[in-house]
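Dear colleagues,

I hope this message finds you well. In preparation for our joint manuscript, I am sending the Response regulator transcription factor (Mesorhizobium zhangyense) sequence together with its predicted structure, so that both groups work from identical material. I would be grateful if you could confirm receipt.
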Amino acid sequence: MIVIVDERQLVTEGYHSLFDREGVASAGFRSSEFGEWVESVAEADLKSVRAFLIGDCGGDVVLPRKIRDRSGAPVIALSEQHSLENTLKLFESGVDDVIRKPVHIREILARITAIRRRAQEEASFTQVGPMRIFTDGRDPEIAGEPLPLPRRERRILEYLASNSGRRVTKTQVFNAIYGIFDEEVEENVVESHISKLRKKLREKLGFDPVDSKRFLGYRLIVG
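The corresponding structure tokens are as follows:
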């Protein structure tokens, strides 16, 4: 999920629509709402955030370092002032990158992926038997051959892999894929996506790498 902070509802709704077209969940906040949310939101919900985009916050100040007290996700400033002084000021505040608007939504996603990749000390993939699951949006590979997956199924597999074999609940998977504020989609859609994903993996691998327990959730069998 991408979190967008901007005073203008038109802006947050616009980004939400653009991210949705790319199959990426997002949520928008005004700066005053965001401050309260980031301090009180549950740890499990924060883990579903891929990046924070900070836009026009009016007179309020959104401190990247305060965000990092609770999350290691990239913090990116969206700047409408094309000046060196403003860019340097934003970097000094602690953001990971400054993107000048207008910008294509795919460039934003590419920059997020690049920052996350550089921040990871471990390998950029998880190995499950002959299957290699990447963290940069590529389809998984089985015995070196790509396995094309729909975006939702691929993101579920990436989320399971990112949790290093830990069990995650259906709600956590839903929040990571659809966003914690999406009320238009039923949470049970996760079960359908995972069922289709497991069938494809079982056909290719010869075994089911996803362990599921009722009421407890899902876990990717790794190692």
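For the figure legend, we might mention the following. The longest helix spans residues 189-205. The two ends are 27 Å apart (CA to CA).

With kind regards,
E.M.
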